[in-house]
């Protein structure tokens, strides 16, 4: 079967392709002639993943899946959440986002947060969501050079290091994204 | 491995037990000495499933999963949603809920709705959610005798009959609940 991963990111595609069973031919947006950015206008993480998958389904007619990720901080009533990538503005600068988060969290005792990745799988209008959750804490300063986004200030539960202090394989084992994709892959491999 | 299904409903347990691989020993709440009703006080369907699974994890220490289901109607801004079971009041009378829904929908042109089942799986504080979505329409009157809850007024997309006019195996193939549980079972069988 052909299955579209609603991303323009070649690295993301290659990473998932290697994990899928051989009967699935994974296509990128570019492979199906979709060169535009898909709008992400929903007000929840679930909603954005669903929106992107439905966009591909309705405009291009393919079975597909799409992902969205956000960081939900307890003391900030779930912010930045669906706005994680553009918390400090529409230029989506990860450094500015982290700076804003640390500022908002200044003096807060409750540092609890969770990362959430939602994958919406759309097979002939049948929809399943696969959600991976990673609980942790927001540190008081940045630590580590690996990863991206909020990784330098997110310390997963039961660990002393931030995501940015871990190598990719260790992070992937623990992470929201790893959990969501492993669930998707189990489902597609059945 | 031992795994608790956070339900007091013996039929639900038996149904899922038959589908799980043999290395999983499925336990009910009664099997672990939990006789109380677990509070469902979250304001989202996801939240209630997570809450129930965390309750079992924190009070009893078991790996577990919990489910929650709701009907989201477009013209009612997603209501009854997390309040589906008690839409017409705390006595959770399905007939009264359906009656209220039909009343609220009177004269509405947009009949689009979706059923959503969320299963929260909690394995040593690792959390995954498995969500099954079934799109459809709210009929203008009740049809059929099978199923339960809103089944007599929910007509799944691409079908002419309501869930209450289908037999259990046909409904299970299409339904939100079937989709969510098949995803969970794929994951646990890997």
Automatic annotation (TrEMBL), chains A, B:
Binding of Mg(2+), residues: 68
Active site: 68
Catalytic activities: ITP + H2O = IMP + diphosphate + H(+); dITP + H2O = dIMP + diphosphate + H(+); XTP + H2O = XMP + diphosphate + H(+)
EC nos: 3.6.1.66
Major enzyme class: hydrolase
Signal peptide: none
NCBIfam families, alphabetized: PRK14823.1 (NF011398), RdgB/HAM1 family non-canonical purine NTP pyrophosphatase (TIGR00042)
General function of this protein: Pyrophosphatase that catalyzes the hydrolysis of nucleoside triphosphates to their monophosphate derivatives, with a high preference for the non-canonical purine nucleotides XTP (xanthosine triphosphate), dITP (deoxyinosine triphosphate) and ITP. Seems to function as a house-cleaning enzyme that removes non-canonical purine nucleotides from the nucleotide pool, thus preventing their incorporation into DNA/RNA and avoiding chromosomal lesions.
Identification of the protein by name: dITP/XTP pyrophosphatase
Organism, scientific name: Salegentibacter chungangensis
Organism lineage string: Bacteria, Pseudomonadati, Bacteroidota, Flavobacteriia, Flavobacteriales
């Amino acid at each position: 079967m052909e299955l579209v991963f609603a991303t323009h990111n070649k690295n993301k595609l290659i990473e998932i392709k290697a994990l899928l069973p051989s009967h699935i031919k994974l296509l990128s947006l570019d492979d199906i002639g979709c060169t535009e950015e898909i709008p992400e206008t929903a007000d929840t993480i679930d909603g954005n993943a669903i929106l992107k998958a439905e966009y591909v389904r309705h405009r291009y007619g393919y079975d597909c899946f799409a992902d969205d990720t956000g960081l939900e901080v307890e003391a900030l009533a779930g912010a930045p959440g669906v706005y994680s990538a553009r918390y400090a503005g529409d230029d989506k600068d990860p450094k500015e986002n982290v700076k804003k988060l640390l500022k908002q969290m200044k003096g807060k005792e409750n540092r609890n947060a969770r990362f959430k990745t939602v994958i919406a799988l759309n097979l002939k209008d049948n929809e399943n969501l696969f959600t991976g959750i990673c609980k942790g804490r927001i540190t008081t300063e940045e630590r580590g050079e690996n990863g991206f986004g909020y990784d330098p200030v997110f310390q997963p539960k039961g660990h002393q290091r931030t995501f940015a202090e871990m190598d990719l394989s260790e992070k992937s084992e623990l992470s929201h994204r790893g959990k969501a994709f492993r669930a998707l892959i189990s489902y597609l491999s059945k």
